[in-house]
Amino acid sequence: MSYSLQGDQLEAFDSVMEFMFDGQDTKCISGGSGTGKSVLITYIVQNLLPKCENICKLMGLPVQIKNIVVLATTNSAANELESKLTTSLPQSFINLMSTGYTSILPIKTVHSFFGFKVEDDYNTGNTGIFSMSDDIPTFGLENTLVIIDEASQLDGVIKRMVMKHLAPTSKLLLVGDKRQLLPVKGTMTTAFYQPNTYCLTTTRRTNHPALQALYAQLEEGVDTRSFSKITLVPSVIDWLSEDEAQVAITAAFQTAPDTTKVATYTDARSREINSFIRHIQGKPPEISVGDKLVVNNSGVSRFPVGTLVKVQYLGGTQEKYFQDTKPIEEGGIVMGIPYRNAIIVGGKYQREVSIPVDINHYFSTMKYLAATKNWKSYFALKKEFLDLRLPYAMTTYKLQGITIPTIFVDMADLCSCKNKDTLARLLYVAMTRASERVVLYGSIPLRYRSLVEEVTCSPRM
User: Fold this and answer.
1) What is the separation of C-alpha 183 from the centre of its chain, rounded to a whole number of angstroms?
2) For residue 301, what pLDDT is reported?
């Protein structure tokens, strides 16, 4: 497929071409939801190297950039981008990429490519980047353009670690949306706020004027931390009570589950909604053979978080016990987690894993261990089991990078966030996932009544 860029996409590519010959080591492309960032990356992959080579020949210059590496900040973003590249590029070019011509496929995460080790801190209960993997030496990547997609999730510490791996002959191109949610327990790299940033502004995800106007309003909301009234357009932008939403969600997930998602703020709320959807679909509450699920926490399975998997086999129920060594009242207590061994398939991988029978009991135990600061048992439990979720309702963090025709937004859950900057980003990310319809539902706190004229109160699902 031959790609042609339009408007600000073409200007963004021209700015990247200039970047290849200037003295700077980092450039950013920032664009809101649906502005064509993935299309731009695809075009860069296919066209940048030959164009640079032609310019160098004409000017009698040595070719500095000879390879391209495309990375992402999360596994789900890597999977999404790889899917777009393999469906958009000619097979002949994909074959070249797979054999090392530009070192692109498969798309890896920043952590796996550079060997950043994620470690658990048994003193604080935190998980983060603490060191380099011992088996991957520090190296200077030469004559390479490194493109990092969804770079808004790249905090300043990781960005500096990446730069240490690039030789002076290499360059870093960060592509992302500066208005998206910030990295968990981190801050976005300041690179997106430097002069060498090109901003895409034309929305291409949807052609509907009302949705385009909503996108622009939400962008301003992030920039100013303001919450202005949302203009409702029947069947395009709706606000329902929770009772009305129950009916609408029931209809949507019984007829077109693959074209609809529900955006939440908390994990607990997404699990609650997924249980409701599973019930209305007439399925048992427990995971069953044939279920298609999303990996939320990989444990020791080595399935990347965000991978869509299918359950092929389920064994009988067993129980795993964890001894709580922290004294409580009359002594330590022994906690049991019912689980089943399962064979699941995701992409080209098939693995045997252990999955909890009762996910709510599993998380209640995790919450208890965290509250009592028994981090040894906490991390043991976290690593032992594969956390699988239904793909219908997700936290807004997990929905970043996804495009879906219809998005239901649990406004009551989102507005439980008390940080105004984070809430503005939550609203922006959640609503701009939709290409055709946004359905807001639920009552909201009075402090955010500017979002809608009438604040209704209704029971939860």
Assistant:
1) 10
2) 64
- The verdict on pTM exceeding 0.85 is no
Would strands 308-323 and 334-346 be described as parallel, antiparallel, or unpaired? antiparallel
Give pLDDT < 50 ranges for the chain: 1, 100-101, 134-137, 325-331, 454-459
Helices (H), 68-203: 75-88, 91-98, 110-114, 156-163
Q: Do 303 and 351 contact (CB within 8 A), yes or no?
A: yes
Which of 55, 42, 32 has the alpha carbon at shortest distance from 1?
42
> What pLDDT, on a 0 to 100 scale, did the predictor assign at position 101?
46
Q: What is the pLDDT of residue 132?
A: 55
Where in 73-189 does DSSP place strands (E)?
108-109, 116-120, 127-132, 144-149, 171-176
Q: Which amino acid is at 407?
A: I
- Each residue's pLDDT tens digit, 380-438: 888 888 888 889 999 998 888 788 999 999 999 999 998 888 999 999 999 999 999 99
Query: What pLDDT score was predicted for residue 103?
Result: 56
Cβ contacts of residue 50 below 8 Å, gap of 6+? Answer: none
Let me know how long the chain is: 461
Per-residue confidence (pLDDT) for residue 102, from 0 to 100? 52
- Check residue 203 and give its pLDDT: 79
CB 392 within 8 A of CB 257: yes
Using CA atoms, how far residue 338 sits from 266, 314, 359, 378, in Å, is 24, 13, 10, 16
Q: Which residues of 290-307 are buried (b: 16+ CB within 10 A; e: fewer)?
A: ebebbbbebbebebbebb
Strand 144-149 relative to strand 171-176, pairing: parallel
Alpha-carbon distance 434 to 437, whole Å?
A: 6
* 102/150 Cα distance (integer angstroms): 20
For residues 71 and 147, the answer to whether their CB atoms sit within 8 Å is yes
Burial class for 212, CB neighbours closer than 10 Å (0-12, 13-18, 19+): middle
Alpha carbon 270 to chain centroid distance? 15
Cβ contact 263:407 at 8 Å: yes
Q: Strand, helix or coil at 239? A: strand
Report H helices in 225-266: 242-255
> CA angle, corner 44, sides to 40 and 49, nearest 5?
170
**Close Cβ partners of 4 (under 8 Å, ≥ 6 residues apart):** none
Strand pairing category for 116-120 and 127-132: antiparallel
Smallest CA-to-CA distance from 370 within 199, 116, 122, 138 is with: 122
- The stretches of 20-128 forming alpha helices (DSSP H) are 37-59, 75-88, 91-98, 110-114
Question: What is the sign of the dihedral through the CA atoms of 387, 389, 394 and 398?
Answer: positive
- A 10 A CB-CB count for 234 gives 6
Number of CB atoms found within 10 A of residue 145's CB: 27
3-state secondary structure of 203: coil
